[in-house]
């Protein structure tokens, strides 16, 4: 940057050199600000993309969970239906009634199967906390430790995942 | 930049949350739950379990299932004699006399145990975010000393997390309610959790929280409340049926679940029925438990526990040198604070309404996530964005108001949509810009108007006029109409809201709500009319172009139905219009099918020059595929 001839007409009120320096400073400042704003903007855009992706992935999961919660509400009904059928004495005059209960139970299970819900077979299997919850341990002659000896409440799975863990008693 | 997650590492349950899009979000774990039990287990197979899975096998593996490890974090063995008695796992002397847990032959430090819980939370967060998580904010009780805080930090490190900050649980709760924005206020945080009760008195000033005092009861929580209900159920059952369920493990399990369910129901209902068929059986057959628990009875049951929580509150106030009246805000934490009796007790004690909008089981994690967001530079410059208070759009065929920008859309924003002409050879389109919520243009507020002229002659529905609405950060609206065929365009600039006051905006909204049903009706009629009109046009066109191909009898039939439709369109009877339209459609389809079968090729739309005076008509919606039909699809700008 050179100095202007001080004798020139219509000279600047402020020394020309200074205004050049001021302009250069301003430029640097603005460039830095510009870079910052660009960076913020790009980050925001990226976060926006990530957010969209997460939301789209989340929706099917939310729907699934909604269904699961609904199904869980109905399982106790089936539990008691099963108990009722099991505890009905074998008297001949009650056979028709027992059949009726069995058929009702079957209807319920078939409805559940439409939602990929199946009963977990726990009795006699090895205790597995991913599908069983132990509520007690008991020793049982001739039974290997860690085997499920009693099913207190049946467990149900949805696909391969446990929807409700079975409540069991395990051999110690 | 990786996200900083917020973790509430609780005694009974833990929770993890993260900031997303400027809002805290609780992360659901792999099992589908929003909280994770703070339980770690070493299975027989040497597999290490954490969370719900570990809890489920606790009974079969009591010595190697560790719960409530938080009670031992950063403590010396000789300090925890009382706690030690209450847990089935072995607590021993660790390095420098610190408490440690002995599993088989190995001694684990409490941080090592907690790390396994943190590892699971980290994995769940990574699964949700789809990216690695390296940093976290973890909360601790306000009364934790240095050694306990360090232990928590160590647990994070072992789990592979850089703990960027340890914050107090009451502080996190206050953050979740935005109380960090307050100045010179006193805050009381009442935390009634699953197993512990904590009260903290804090002061907020200049964005910094200072803990003035803490107090509590390390063995008072929701579990006590559940227990009371179970005892009551057993007592009532014994009274009614003479059977003692106390030694029946199977029955007790069902009672436990029923008690928790009843407790939750009584938070909203005045009474609840506990219905447990086949709870047990004896020689005389199966027995059922059916009992009704009223809220009044329930409140009696838990009264002593509630009262027990107030003693520490008194003491905390005294220690802080603060009177009840001086407390400005009260925050509720912990699932049990959902119980109306507890909420009332807290309100009566502090003589003010407590904050309770955030899920009390999650509020601490939410606050930790907010802190993580602040540290990560996310919740920074609060760029307050405005929204448009009322919907904006244009008038389309039939006097309908077609929205381009919905109300409450954040600005700046831009929306465009393609429209077309309503009449053949229409030389210009009138863009009538309106603001409001009613479906009919005449019921809304005109804010601008302009014309785009010089459109080349074309049949109706063929020209493509792209209308763009653009609002800048200052709320100034630019509307542009561009003929995509000739690239001719015209635009107009409209000032923000044009002087509508808040009240006027509200009035317009309320108006729209009140007239919603009528407006919907009107709109339906117009839509039916438009559809019928378009169909008549198409049929007449087809007749003209393909008359020779259609047998005379069919032509007559078509002409007759077209006439009846046109007659109906002259009137206002929506049903008649619909009916004749359907008839016309049927006949038209029949003829089209035949034509297609004959020709085997698609029909070509021909331009037919007509020397007629064309009035300037408003743009119509183009029913073809390449145009979004705004009347049937609400495009919401979020």
Structural notes for this entry:
The complex is a heterodimer of chains A (172) and B (638). In chain A, 53% of the residues lie in helices and 18% in strands. Chain A has helices at 16-87, 95-113, and strands spanning 117-120, 132-138, 148-153, 155-158, 161-164, 166-171. In chain A, a hairpin with a 2-residue loop joins β4 (155-158) and β5. In chain A, α1 (16-87) packs antiparallel against α2. In chain B, β16 and β17 (285-294) form a beta hairpin. With 638 residues, chain B is of the alpha+beta class. Mean pLDDT of chain B is 87; it is low at 601-617 and 621-638. In chain B, α5 crosses α10, α8 packs parallel to α9 (340-350) and α12 (552-570) packs antiparallel against α13 (574-599). The interface between A and B is medium-sized, with 33 and 30 residues.
How is the main sheet of chain B built?
A: 6 strands, mixed
Low-confidence stretches of chain B: 601-617, 621-638
Number of DSSP helices of chain A? 2
Structural class determined from secondary elements of chain B: alpha+beta
| Pattern of helices and strands of chain A | HHEEEEEE
Helix content, binned percent of chain B: 25-40%
Q: For the largest interface in this structure, which chains are involved and how many residues does each contribute?
A: A-B, 33 and 30 residues
Question: β content of chain B, as a range?
Answer: 25-35%
User: How many angstroms does the end-to-end distance of chain B come to?
Assistant: 24 Å
Give the helix/strand class of chain A: alpha+beta
The name CATH uses for the topology of the largest domain in chain A is Hemagglutinin Ectodomain, Chain B
Number of strands of chain A: 6
Radius of gyration of chain B: 35 Å
Mean pLDDT over the residues of chain A: 86
Cα distance spanning the termini of chain A: 93 Å
The main β sheet of chain A shows up as: 3 strands, antiparallel
Q: How many strands in all of chain B?
A: 26
% residues in beta strands of chain A: 15-25%
Give the radius of gyration of chain A: 38 Å
- What is the 3D shape of chain A? elongated
